[in-house]
Write a structure and sequence with these properties.
Length: 391
């Protein structure tokens, strides 16, 4: 069967897919239906951070699968409580709401911010230009990229877009109706733009001063990517709410919204809910993911190797100054912004057995699995050098 043709016939055509059918994954590698092996430097958009088929994650999920696949949220769930305790203790000592995806984790944060502001008529949320927060109608409205809005009007009211890394722009956007600011500490979808340390710390102070909530969307940049368990730790700035998803389940779908205790308690019984949110298998797997990532040696490796990789990309920029405009990154998040469109480079890398992504047409994005070592990063740089040389 030709799955590429069948997909076109039976599935909504919302994804511009790369023409390859993968059937197996192990560690940092994917295997296609012909047995060809590919080094994956995209980790399923930051999902497979602990590697494909991570043995600890598989074993926890299998054990849970044999005991209880689903438990409605009207009963108490041990895997949920265990994971919530772990996330709370390791972060802002708050409470957790579990959902199934990043968009839902942000929906929960947005609803919580609205309820927080409701008592004094505040509902506006400041987001940022070039941000990405999801595809549901509210998170789409919070997303600062017009191309995603086209055709879906009217969007949810009350979102404004400040300039990233510009505190004066945030101040200008702020009104008596503002209840929260939502920000990705490292903008991912738009091409890896890390926030400035000074800006995030000024933003924290401003929000505190105005009694505005600060929400960090760590869905793409959290859980080890920046070289710390949470991205906020890389900045020394503590948010009021953190949203997580993507890599949290090691490949299984789970989202989490962590809010300071006094904020979480604003929600009353019935204010929010989810049928599948906090599924026991996903929670059991997620516990192993968090344990895996919360490892000093691993985080140190990500910081060191991340710098090494970004420097390697900078060397390529020096070698190909007419092709590469800018290199950005932090930890295991990197981007090479090109002067030309990147699709052909991505295709040539694919042929050479390397998976990378191109975002915003001209930005090559690298999100290596946290399991990738120096050898694998060297291999990436060498394949890229070959491909760029032939361009
Ligand atoms: C920063 C950020 N927030 C939210 C989302 C939405 O997550 P999901 O696709 O799981 O709904 C994404 C997905 O790419 C993201 O990168």
């Amino acid at each position: 069967m030709n799955y590429i043709d069948l997909e076109k016939r039976y599935i909504f055509q919302t994804y511009k897919r790369v023409p390859v059918v993968f059937v197996k994954g192990k560690d940092s590698y994917l295997y296609d239906e012909n047995g060809k092996k590919y080094l994956d430097m995209f980790s399923g958009i930051s999902v497979s951070s602990v590697g494909y088929c991570n043995p600890k994650v598989i074993s926890a999920a299998k054990k849970q699968l044999d005991n209880l696949i689903h438990l409605t949220n009207i009963y108490y769930s041990r895997p949920q409580v265990n994971l919530a305790m772990m996330l709370s203790t390791l972060s802002i000592k708050g409470k957790v709401f579990f959902s199934n995806s990043g968009a839902e984790a942000n929906e929960c944060a947005i609803k919580l911010a609205r309820k927080f502001g409701n008592k004094d008529g505040r509902y506006e949320i400041i987001s940022f230009e070039n941000s990405f927060h999801g595809r549901t109608i509210a998170t789409l409205s919070a997303t600062g990229q017009k191309q995603f809005h086209k055709g879906f009007a009217p969007l949810v009211k009350g979102f404004k877009f400040a300039i990233f890394n510009d505190i004066s722009s945030v101040k200008k956007m702020c009104t008596k109706k503002t209840c929260a600011v939502i920000i990705e500490p490292v903008q991912g979808e738009s091409g890896i733009y890390p926030a400035d340390k000074k800006f995030l710390s000024e933003l924290r102070n401003f929000c505190r001063e105005k009694n505005i909530l600060l929400i960090f969307d760590e869905i793409q940049c959290g859980l080890g990517r920046t070289g710390n368990l949470f991205a906020y730790k890389s900045y020394g700035v503590i948010p009021d709410i953190i949203t997580l998803a993507k890599s949290l389940g090691g490949g299984l779908p789970i989202g989490a919204t962590i809010a300071k205790k006094e904020l979480a308690d604003i929600f009353e019984y019935g204010d929010h809910g989810s049928t599948f949110g906090g599924n026991p298998i996903c929670c059991a797997a997620a516990e192993e993911v968090v344990k895996f990532v919360n490892n000093k040696k691993l985080l140190k490796k990500i910081t060191g190797n991340g710098k090494f990789f970004i420097n390697g990309l900078k060397k390529l920029q020096k070698k190909y100054p007419l092709l590469i405009k800018e290199i950005r990154g932090i930890g295991y998040m990197a981007a090479a912004e090109l002067y030309v469109e990147g699709a052909e480079i991505v295709n040539k890398c694919l042929e050479a057995g390397l998976l990378i992504n191109c975002t915003k047409k001209k930005t090559l994005r690298f999100l290596p699995p946290l399991t990738a070592g120096k050898n694998e990063l060297l291999k990436v740089l060498s394949i890229l050098e070959n491909v760029l040389g032939k361009n």
